[in-house]
Amino acid sequence: MEFVSILAFMGLGGQEIFLIALFILLFFGAKKIPELMRGLGQGINEFKNATKDVKDNIEKSMEDTTSK
Questions:
Q1: Are residues 21 and 37 in the same domain?
Q2: In angstroms, rounded to a whole number, what is the distance separating the alpha carbons of residues 46 and 26?
Q3: What would the pLDDT profile of 40-63 be if each residue is shown by its tens digit?
Q4: Count of domains observed in the chain
């Protein structure tokens, strides 16, 4: 549901979302879509973990500079 709300925020209506989904279905096929979504999910998780690591490093360096 969150994905649809993001697309709606970007100015895409129901008809545009339907056409994009149809294009993806025709281009990749029904068997590849779960594999693509799994890869997309893993990529998003890796991105979240990387941003969390960067944030933690910045906070740690801020704590180190204030404690000295």
A1: no
A2: 28
A3: 899 999 999 999 999 999 999 888
A4: 2
Q: Enumerate residues 6+ apart whose C-beta is below 8 A from 64.
A: none
d(CA 47, CA 53): 10
Alpha-carbon distance of 67 to 49, in angstroms, equals 27
Q: Which domain holds residue 67?
A: 31-68
pLDDT (tens digit per residue) in 11-45? 767 788 888 888 888 888 888 888 888 998 999 99
Helix, strand, coil in percent for the chain, rounding step 5: 85, 0, 15
How far does CA 68 lie from the centroid of its chain? 38
DSSP class of 45: H
